[in-house]
Amino acid sequence: MTPVLQIAVPSKGAMEESxxxxxxxxxxxxxxxxxxxxxxxxxAGDALQAVFQRAADIPHKLGAGLVDVxxxxxxxxxxxxxxxxNVIVAVEDLGFARCSLVLAAPEAWLDVSxxxxxxxxxxxxxxxxxxxxxxxxxxxxVRQFLLRHxxxxxxLVEGTGALEIAxxxxxxxxxxxxxxxxxxxxxxxxxxxxxxxxxxxxxCLLVNRARIASSPARREAIRGVLEMIEAHQRARELVSITxxxxxxxxxxxxxxxxxRRDLAGVRGPTLTPVFDPDSPDRxxxxxxxxxxxxxxxxxxxxxxxxxxxITVQRPxxxxxxxxxxxxxxxxxx
Amino acid sequence: MQQAxxxxxxxxxxxxxxxxxxxxxxxxxxxxxxxxxxxxxxDVPLVEGLDLYxxxxxxxxxSKLYSFIxxxxxxxxxxxxxxxxxxxxxxxxxxxxxxxxxxxxxxPVFRNEHGQQEEPRQFTQAGIEILGDGSxxxxxxxxxxxxxAALGAGLPRVRLVLGHLGPLxxxxxxxxxxxxxxxxxxxxxxxxxxxxxxxxxxRRRLGLQAQVNEGAGEAETxxxxxxxxxxxxxxxxxxxxVRTMLDQMGLSLEGSTRTPDEIIDRVLLKARRHAxxxxxxxxxDLERALAFTEQLCTxxxxxxxxxxxxxxxxxxxxxxxxxxxxxxxxxxxxxPHELDGVTIELAPGMARxxxxxxxxxxxxxxxxxxxMPPGIQxxxxxxxxxxxxxxxxxHGFPALGFSFNVESLAAILPPRSESRGxxxxxxxxxxxxxxxxxxxxxxxxxxxxxxxxxxxxxPELEKQRLRxxxxxxxxxxxxxxxxxxxxxVFDGRPGDGGIEEALTRTAAExxxxxxxxxxxxxxxxxx
Lengths: 333, 527
Fold this sequence. Notes:
The structure holds 2 protein chains of 2 kinds.
Chain A (H helix, E strand, L loop, with lengths): L4 E6 L2 H13 L13 E4 L5 E6 L4 H6 L5 E5 H8 L5 E5 L7 E8 L8 H13 L4 E5 L2 H10 L5 E5 L7 H4 L4 E6 L3 H5 L2 E12 L1 E6 H5 L2 H21 L1 E9 L3 H8 L12 E4 L9 E9 L3 H10 L2 E7 L10 H9 L1
Parallel strand pairs in A: 1-3, 1-4, 7-8, 7-9
Antiparallel strand pairs in A: 2-3, 4-11, 5-11, 6-9, 6-10, 12-14, 12-15, 13-14
Chain B lengths: L16 H20 L3 E2 L5 E3 H7 L2 H4 L3 E4 L5 E4 L4 H15 L3 E10 L11 E10 L4 H17 L5 E7 L1 H10 L4 H14 L6 H6 L12 H12 L5 H15 L10 H20 L1 H16 L6 H14 L8 H10 L7 E5 L13 E7 L10 E7 L3 H6 L6 E7 H7 L10 E5 L5 H13 L3 E5 L5 H10 L4 E4 L9 E5 L8 H11 L5 E7 L2 E3 L1
Parallel strand pairs in B: 1-5, 7-8, 12-13, 12-14, 15-16
Antiparallel strand pairs in B: 2-4, 3-4, 5-6, 6-11, 7-9, 9-10, 10-11, 14-15, 16-17
Helix pairs in contact in B: 1-5, 1-16, 5-14, 6-12, 7-12, 9-11, 10-11, 11-12
């Protein structure tokens, strides 16, 4: 059977690894029998097919309608696509491959710490008949940014591979490149400039508008994908905490727990009887679902209600009545 | 996979029929006004090296440049306007000839409007340049021409808004503010003049407001220490001092494309700026300049009212009153041009995108009466005396000009019913082609628009279709070449001798007799 929805995923390196891990976590694991296979079924059933593509090619393949959906970096999408009506960003924050596109100057440039300093240096260069050379893999985004900020006199040096070496090798004065933790920049004696953050990025999910809009089957398939992603993302923020609490009866325990309404879940705590032969009908397992940041507080609260044997679990998925992500996409189609 | 539909690129529009005619008529009207004033047409490439525009334009236009890498790996751009190209093309010639050159242009320009999906990215500019004339007489002449061309194109009234960069530049000279600060203040002036809000950005850029400076290292605080340390030292002593300090701090200046001395000199420059801002003098000047720009851009209105207020403002800031002289001169020189239908307004705080404007600047609006909002700008321009040198690198001369946005002009002009060429249709079966084509050629030579059609279906329906499409007459050739063709004249006045006579005469020249003539009068038929 031919698949209903083709989803382009990055085929190389760290981006491939994190995408596959993410899809697995969303219950949409790619079932690839060997790593050199360029397409493979995805999730349960055979409606979804993952197609492995270079991350930089994915926006073009989507724009041309060769695939229905794609996962790639928002930086790559912005550089290679700009604003287009063919491609919709359905999820801009998948929560992995986080990075920034930044302007970075040599640490030796003690006089340069901000974008304004850089503009001064560029003007000084121009005065001497030189042009500030900037090495980058993102010429479109970098040029737009520089022009918007009035840094007019510059030359872009397009490069691939490790750009961090360009200033010390002398083929560029500064660089504009992806920065995740700052470690690589520091190791190469470069520093990011204040005001020089061109774009903050993470992995995003893109869809081809026409291909999704024109087919009810594809719409149903993308709804399934978005639901799983959303449920997984929502689950990541929540924990389920259970404690055995002893009290006069179920109502009295519930009321004690509800004294902290903010910690008692969306509708209220779940109480389940525990058959304790020593205290028959007096022990209940109280379960609360709270955000991860409230865990410590919820634990203390349950203790103060007389709770013990506290266990904490992470839900795998949390589904709402309707998928917000899909509703938003549907509005844009 | 199904073939994707080819769609129009966002922001670009197809134009045909009346929409096309309208733009063409306006271009003709404007360029003939220019020609009557002695401007000769020039055409320049659609594509230029990116560098040309980087030398000229302000960030407002540059951020909308349609630039790309061409197949030969050159950085090029579609022209966002004409002036840069015109100057590039004629700089050497104008410099050599030592006499002013007057040129006019008209054609499409391209600006990549981000995010605004419906905003057109291609529009038509028609304008002029005077290269090599720095006189106020030329200023006034250019203003008068812009107004006359707009009125000639069909606008009943126009509003001419005049500004001048003299007052602001005079203040900045007076306060000794230059370099980047000057550029920032000019940009800020335009932003405020156009109704932009807030001065936080410009304050930060001017260094009047501290930046939130995450991750600032030792280097960032360096100027603070330095300012005191190098006070009174000679440049050589200061450099040596900085080197020693950096060595002690374990900071290296090697391993980059700038020499240690270049870096040290700018560290010292920064230190002096910090010190002067801290010391109050520099800060006070920038604050004054900022306050001046704020007040300047509130001035706008009738010259008799605005001039005295501008004079008072200059006096308050101890700027020499001569800063307004050029504007006064231009106003005086405009008077003998006797411009009817033109309301003149002064706006000394007006700034226009390009930092190269050096004196007079102006904008032209369709005047919709005092009660109406400012309206749509249709033309803008001014003087850019430093531009030629900046673009050519070696030929400096004064220059000024303006350009109309033809689509804006078209949008506000009332639609005009223009008579199309008089049309005649020939319905031609195969055996009559030679004869019919000869008749068509001869008719075209008399100035008629002639189209030929294969017979398709009933002649009555065919006549009706042509009539609805604005044809004045149709000649129907019979299936046999031996029979005479039939002439039908639509909506003609019986016996008025117009198209009927022309057709009969031309047919006779082709040794053709038109038989069974029929003139239809407003739906009625006459044999």
